[in-house]
Amino acid sequence: MSHTPSQTVGPYLSIGLPWPDGPDVVLDGTPGAFWLYGVVTDGAGEPVPDALIETWQADPAGRFDHPDDPRGAVSGFRGFGRCPTDDSGRWAIRTLKPGPVPGPGGAPQAPHIDMSVFARGLLHRVVTRVYFADEEPANATDAVLGGVPAERRATLIAVPDETGYRFDIRLQGDDETVFFAI
Amino acid sequence: MTAADRLVIPGYRRDDAGAHPPLLTPGYKSTLLRAPSQAPLLLPHTLTEVTGPVLGEGRVTPSDSDLTLHGGGEAQGQRIVVHGQVRDSDGRPVPQTLIEVWQANAGGRYLHRWDQHDSPLDPHFTGLGRALTDSLGRYRFVTIKPGAYPWGNHHNAWRPAHIHFSVFGRAFTQRLVTQMYFPDDPLFPYDPIYNSVPEAARHRMVSRFDMSATVEAWALGFEFDIVLRGREATPMEEPES
Asked: Residues of B with CB below 8 A from A177's CB?
């Protein structure tokens, strides 16, 4: 059977997609919780106010609440975050840093969060991965990061600050975020 | 190495080359500054990609699939039933997966602060619906047929009537957002978003009039099936770390 084609979410995505608790991968007050946040900008450097990001990640032990995890599903960690951008292109989710997840060949991957970006003007979601700047030893051996040209790797690294980690998304341009075919 | 020390991960097929629109579609002006200019890199399917959010329980109530009753009254317009089945490309139903829909009202107006189309809002229509597929991947919404509406893409631009569909599937790889159209819409030849999809695949976005789902003296029926990516024939095997 042939796949259903993708179409843009259009400018009115905020009618259908945001949830009040969408940004709360974990509840306020969860030990270790931080804000992962950033701005979505276009090829002219302008903020994108009609985008939505979604995140999917393992829990701090590297496990998923999902029946297809062959190590067994671990319940209680939603793993999913969702936030529309505001008028300034900003988004934020409250989460925990994921643990190591086995990757190609069984080698552990560096902590990472899968991210989808939807927007007016994106006819298909674009997919990226968030890594963490304070996980340098793990990042150095991560197979996916290692496959990214060195000069573009920084676009996948969230940078810690006083509120959490900042991860800006540049859809197009000189410092364009690395996106993945999935 | 025995089976016990191997981690078996179900792989997913890659997208059909001809299924999806190119991100850069100049006829749809908003793509010009938003489509990435670099080719995407291939992401291997690890556990993060072959799992995904299991959503819906406690998030969807039966009334969420009826968009025609809101604010103590009935929405204006042509009442319709939209139903179908979510399957993967191997024909397997995708059960208990969350579907979210949003749409314009009968006059082609969205309940959104940016929509300034000169057509009235309907106090009894928000345009938002949610449903979970059943054990066979089936879903059903009751709504009103959305109107066509003008947009600023080019002179005298009108979007064909459509309903936005968001589907999660079972894995991060299967996530899909699309638009469902209605059969024989005269606006199809003029719409750059509909026509962004390769010609051979466009019909997969068009619902079918369905007399068997039409309810006498009450609503017209339309059927819209959704096909997500299937599994690879043989699961990828990864040694346990």
From this structure: 36
Interface contact B203, partner A, CB < 8 A: no
CB pairs under 8 A between A and B: 248
Q: Are the Cβ atoms of A176 and B89 closer than 8 angstroms?
A: no
Q: List residues bridging with A111 in a β-sheet.
A: none
Parallel/antiparallel/unpaired status of strands B73-74 and B220-223: unpaired
B47 located within any domain: no
CB contact under 8 A, A3 and B89: yes
Residue B18 lies in a domain: no
- Provide the domain count of chain A: 1
With a CB-CB cutoff of 8 Å, which residues 27-66 of chain B face chain A? 28, 30-38, 40-55, 59
A137-175: buried (b, 16+ CB within 10 Å) or exposed (e) per residue?
Answer: ebbeebebbeebeeeebebbbbeeeeebbbbbbbbbbee
Say whether pTM exceeds 0.90.
Answer: yes
Domain of B110 in residue numbering reads as 53-229
Q: Do the Cβ atoms of A172 and B37 come within 8 Å?
A: yes
ipTM rounded to 2 decimals: 0.97
pLDDT in tens, A67-111: 888 888 888 899 999 999 999 999 999 999 999 999 988 899 999
